[in-house]
Amino acid sequence: MRLCRSFPGCNRAMARVMRIVGSTFSLRLALAAGIVCHAAVTPVGADVASPTLTLEDAIATAVKFNPYVQASRHEVTAADAQVTQARSGLLPQLDVSEAYNRTTSPLWAFGTRLNQGVITARDFDPDRLNDPDPIDNFRTALTLSWNIFDGGQTWIGWRQARENLEAGNLALQRTEQEIIAQTAITYVGCLLAAEGRGVVDQALETAGAHLKVVEDRARSGLAVKSDVLRARVRIGELSQQRLQADSQVNVALAQLGAVMGKPEAVPPSTRLAGVFSQCTAPQGEMDAWIETALNRRSDLKQLDLQETVARRQLDRARAAHLPTLALQGNYEINSEDFSDSHDNYAVGAVRSSPAAVRPGPPWPRPTPWWRPPARGCSRPGPQWSRPAWPAKTPRCWRLMTAG
């Protein structure tokens, strides 16, 4: 302070020195910020033995373990099973069953003895018919059914199932694309967060050097105490920013682990490797990029397939009004205790037609409150008529028919 009072130009010299120091500090910050676009990014302070994660490994892990991708794969598996189920409707259906019953019902007891082939003359005794003894029966049945014609419902359902499978594959492809893009965006966010922390570290180093210069100048009498306090406050602010930068890096790594579907694969000490110097801007016109997206986006193709499936559902509903024809066969073996048995079979064809539904009467057109004047009427203006009888309205007609 005494030196400043002795030399009147000292204040101007100190101001010039501070401007030079401030310019140097700003330059170092700018150089540190420029490293983001031109350097391989690695979190500052990370252990050398920490695992290194590349963008390619992150994408491969995300495509394999992301829950949304896994759910889409399960949906594709279910759609594939539905194709098999729909195709089975075109094949004969064979069923095997085993049944046991014990009865004293006169009707069922007599029928059971008939099926077992053990009817004798004394079974026609009225007392035996009216009060039969308990009888056991084991029935083994083999049933075969085959829909020869069902109006095309099964065939249309099979085509719908195949189109649903194709739509599921497109949905899986779109989900993988979205997860890849999300993984890349999150990975770059981790890189930027790590570089932001590096910039803060360099700023702290620069602020520490600046504080040392100011303290030396203060001891020499070229700086005041407020300059030292200002430099210490700046270091405190940068220390707080360093803590925030650490938090941002940890949050970004946690987000990357969540997108990858394996949070344990991205610990806080993970080192990320990425080079931005080789990045180039996309070439081409915007209209060309939009046209390419419209032609290649799998979700748009999925919507087209879903529309086709919905249209086929209309054809399937119309086919339900056509007659059907099915072949049926039955072979069964009846035995009381497996010591002796009797078998029989039945073969036939079943034709069924849906009941014809007669359309109801058309809704009566209600009489309007206003009607144009009759031809030849000398009085101008509208003519008012009596309102329609309520029984002619659609609501009353539904109530009457429901009753």
What are the main properties of this structure?
403 residues; alpha+beta; Outer membrane efflux proteins (OEP); 4-stranded antiparallel β-sheet; 56% helix; elongated; disordered N terminus
Quick overview:
This protein is an alpha+beta fold and 403 residues long. The chain has helices at 2-6, 10-34, 55-65, 67-88, 106-116, 126-130, 153-220, 225-260, 286-296, 298-319, 394-402; strands spanning 52-54, 93-103, 135-149, 271-273, 324-335, 341-352, 370-371, 383-384.
Secondary structure blueprint with pairings:
Elements: H1 2-6, H2 10-34, E1 52-54, H3 55-65, H4 67-88, E2 93-103, H5 106-116, H6 126-130, E3 135-149, H7 153-220, H8 225-260, E4 271-273, H9 286-296, H10 298-319, E5 324-335, E6 341-352, E7 370-371, E8 383-384, H11 394-402
Parallel strand pairs: 1-4
Antiparallel strand pairs: 2-3, 3-5, 5-6, 7-8
Helix pairs in contact: 2-7, 3-7, 4-7, 7-8, 7-10
Describe this structure in words.
Residues 1-48 and 378-392 have low confidence and may be disordered. With 403 residues, this protein is an alpha+beta fold. It has helices at 2-6, 10-34, 55-65, 67-88, 106-116, 126-130, 153-220, 225-260, 286-296, 298-319, 394-402, and strands at 52-54, 93-103, 135-149, 271-273, 324-335, 341-352, 370-371, 383-384.
Whole-number count of domains: 1
* CATH superfamily grouping: Outer membrane efflux proteins (OEP)
Q: State the distance separating the first and last CA atoms.
A: 110 Å
Strand content: 5-15%
Question: H/E series, N to C?
Answer: HHEHHEHHEHHEHHEEEEH
Stated plainly, the CATH topology is called: Outer membrane efflux proteins (OEP)
* Low-confidence sequence ranges: 1-48, 378-392
- Specify the CATH architecture: Up-down Bundle
What would you call the shape?
A: elongated
Structural class: alpha+beta
The tally of strands reads 8
Please give the count of helices.
11
Strand order of the largest sheet: 2-3-5-6
Report helical residue fraction: 55-70%
CATH hierarchy, class: Mainly Alpha
Quote the average pLDDT. Answer: 80
How many whole angstroms does the radius of gyration measure?
44 Å
